[in-house]
Amino acid sequence: MLEKPKIRIPTSVKKGEVFQVKTLIKHPMESGNRKDASGAPIPRKIINRFVCKANGKVAFSADFNTSVSADPFLTFSLRLEETSKLEFSWYEDGGAVVTETVDVEVK
């Protein structure tokens, strides 16, 4: 089960200013390479995709594979030209999705 992510981002920025976004989501990340006590394979269950949208348009995205660590931490830069609603979405194998939104005022 995906937990509520942590997002560190300024709530206001200057127009055109590059700023840093930091996100962290708690997730154990099962690679699919291990076996349980009876020898049966444990199915893969990882966060396989992350998307950040600004006012509905993709501003940053990343696809992950089995080598991604547990509790993935992402840092990336954005630049906004207008006040925006940022939507952050984490997608897990099996279809679970966690989405959080943050409003950023552009001055």
Question: What's the quick description here?
Answer:
Helix content is 0%, strand content 50%. The chain has no helices and eight strands. It is elongated.
List keywords for this structure.
107 residues; mainly beta; Immunoglobulin-like; 5-stranded mixed beta sheet; 0% helix; 50% strand
Write up this protein:
This protein is mainly beta and 107 residues long. The protein has one domain (6-33, 44-106): Immunoglobulins (Immunoglobulin-like, Sandwich), CATH 2.60.40. Helices cover 0% and strands 50% of the residues. A hairpin with a 2-residue loop joins strand 4 (47-54) and strand 5. The mean pLDDT is 93.
- The backbone outline, from C-alpha atoms, is elongated
Find the count of extended strands (DSSP E, 2+ residues). 8
Oligomer class: single chain
Distance between the termini: 38 Å
Q: Which stretches are poorly predicted, pLDDT < 50 over at least 5 residues?
A: none
Report the β-strand fraction as a percent range. over 45%
Q: What profile does the largest beta sheet have? A: 5 strands, mixed
CATH topology: Immunoglobulin-like
Rounded mean pLDDT score? 93
Order of helices and strands: EEEEEEEE
Specify the number of helices: 0
CATH homologous superfamily, by name? Immunoglobulins
Radius of gyration: 16 Å
How many distinct domains? Answer: 1
Instruction: Determine the structural class based on helices, strands and strand pairing.
Output: mainly beta
Strand arrangement within the widest β-sheet reads 2-8-7-4-5
What percentage of residues falls in helices of 4 or more residues?
Answer: under 10%
Which CATH class applies here? Mainly Beta
**CATH architecture designation:** Sandwich
